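Blinded run. Sample ID left blank on purpose so nobody reads anything into the name before looking at the predicted structure. Input follows.
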Amino acid sequence: MAKKPKLTLQQKRQVSSNRTRRMASKRPTSELDDNQLGEQQAGKVIGRFGKHADVEDQLGVVHRCHMRRTIGSVVCGDNVLFRPGKDLTLNVAGVIVAVEDRKSVLTRPDYYDGVKPVAANIDQIIIVSSVIPSLSLNLIDRYLVASEDVEITPVILLNKVELLSDEEFKDVDKQLDIYRKIGYQIVYTSCKTLTGLEQLSSCLKDKTSVFVGQSGVGKSSLINALLPDANETIGDISDISGLGQHTTTSAKLLRFELGGELIDSPGVREFALWHLPIDRLTYNFKEFRDYLGGCKFRDCKHGNDPGCIIRKAVEDGEISAQRFDNYHKILSNMDELRPAHIKV
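Blinded prediction complete.
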């Protein structure tokens, strides 16, 4: 018997996609009949689980819903129109029929599917970092660029500060001062000593926020400290990789008693920026903006180009040399990390 040909990863994905489409074409156009559904009403997505979403109505009742195939995407924080099911004993008893316009949306690039939304209607992005696995200013800069690109206010949070000696804390504070000087808010926290939790609570009050950051930096521990009833699973740091283990597997929206909401989304170890055009990347380093268009040459790469006023500003101490170096590190990796099928 002849051996079956070995399929490439792309061929396997295509076979799987074709099979899914064939199966979908055999299913009815709606998982629920029209007479099983109530009147259309407004709601908010507070959880996303695979092909379904939890929608909270205006009375606080949560309905697990299907999504109409005509809807492009549904994420936590979306305001939607849905039809609740009349039989609440069903596991999935409702259908989302439309997503209202978003005032903001946090996105991240996906290797296969391009740019994908992560959360919607966000007021601020809390960039959670930690001294463990390690403090990476380059990673912080990646998140800041992503925040600037979607025009959502970022806040830098350094967690697990109880692990720092007084001298180490002074050194870390000096490193992060470059962000304070250009207008970013910085919060220091410790779930063990409760340091900074009151400041963090004040920062979150009356806003819709989202935590982003590497796995293992303590996002779930912070949520448990702020909302003890959340019961977030806490992961350990791998002894082999030094990286955190993913503990949040689905996005959900949590509410604070004093006002404000927090969207907890699956951890992201790397926040790629390969989907951005170079001029957009440059613009998203916000301290560069006052100098853009002032270089001697229009195609200035802001490196060793003659007449580059951004490099001159670095030499004069007006722009952080660390940020300038991180900009070029990100820039140098963009083409290398960009999938071949994605065009910018």
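Unblinding after everyone has recorded impressions. The longest helix spans residues 9-26.
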